[in-house]
Amino acid sequence: MKNTFPKNFIWGAATSAYQIEGAAAEDGKGPSIWDAFCQIPGKVAKNEHGNIACDHYHRIEEDVALLKNLGVKAYRFSIAWSRILPNGRVKKINHKGIDFYNKLIDALIAADIQPWVTLYHWDLPLALQMEENGWLGENISDLFADYADICFKHFGDRVKNWITINEAWVVAILGYGQGVFAPGKISNTAPYKAGHHVLLAHAKAVNIFRKKYFPIHGGKIGITNNCDWREPLMDKQADKDAAQRALEFFFAWFTDPVFKGDYPKVMKDRLGEKLPQFSAEEKALLKGSSDFIGLNHYTTMYASDASGITQDGPIYGNGGISEDQNVNLSVDKNWKRTSMNWAVVPWGCKNLLLWIADRYDNPDIYITENGCSYNDQLVDGACEDNNRVDFIQTYLAACKEAIDQGVNLKGYFIWSLMDNFEWASGYEKRFGIHFVDFETLERTPKASAKWYGKFIKNEVT
Ligand code: GAL
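^ inputs. structure came back:
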């Protein structure tokens, strides 16, 4: 497959702090909710944790060399809030944490790789969970904005691409609804409140960036939201409406407010008082608060109308709280699956890009994550992950088709640069294009890294 993407298309790779850094209690870092969550027996497969992870904290040079060899022009990583502010508050700054990110940013720039920095990839300082009730607390959005301010101040001279929040939907639904991710709360109302505060945190941070730092350093800022595609199960209006509803409860929940200034009507209608309201001032702050849409996309499911199906209590599907949406989700048993059991459906990616372009007036979109986990093996020092090569090729072909149909897709970041701590699944699920031996911590490029590197350098014919 030849690379026919536009010349200035941004090719990148992504990671996040808790999943790769390790050094969980080193050089003054405070604990995060993931450090605590991993200590509760049964929450993470094999009771694994990110104490060492990929030991990236001690391997900046080596990991930047991986990126350089790959040939990517951009690297998306996240800052661990509690590495910079051990108890989450700006009163106590951990300068060793600042030094670490400075070193990383400088090494990237020296290697001609743009840093794309996510401010929040789920590792809330534990102190703020305990003292402020985490994302349910009334002060949390201001505390996030204070933390963001510190990051812009220290790194804004070199970082020109900022992402405030990674996947608010996951924070809300998996963290405060299903309780399968930190902080492990189970509720059918808390997700909407937590999500509300996450959106306000985003808007307040962007406001500080634009007022205080943009005039000096310039740069772009946006939010990254995740979404699977929802395809109507049958060619009938009720299923088409169900698929649309599912997409609105998934993606528009966190994207309408930042582009249009408020939640989707369907959510307001169906949720009533369960969904908090924005004040006029908050709406104004939110509207237009993202210079681009960051999209994390992994899979596709069928959606059908769930009317007539009686449910006893809240039902959680992969799409949120099903009873609120009245949507049933299913997959085609003939679809290929990854080792996460996620269906491989490249045309879903194209349809989603077209849907986003249509709904939000053709904004700039960056796919800030796309990838797959397989049961990779290292055999004689090599990992022939041809299933991942296929996955990337077919998803990229779908992206290119979307671009050809007018979608402003400007960049693509593979998840992930290397195998890492896959949250509640631990280390068994390997998403990397570099194989990590978690005993020796040695990194080995998989076949997919070699293919991706050649592709982006235009060496594949
Ligand atoms: C995303 C998340 C990443 C990674 C990926 C694969 O939701 O942002 O941290 O874990 O999924 O599951």
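The chain has a mean pLDDT of 97. The chain is about 40% helix and 15% strand.
thumbs up if we can close this ticket
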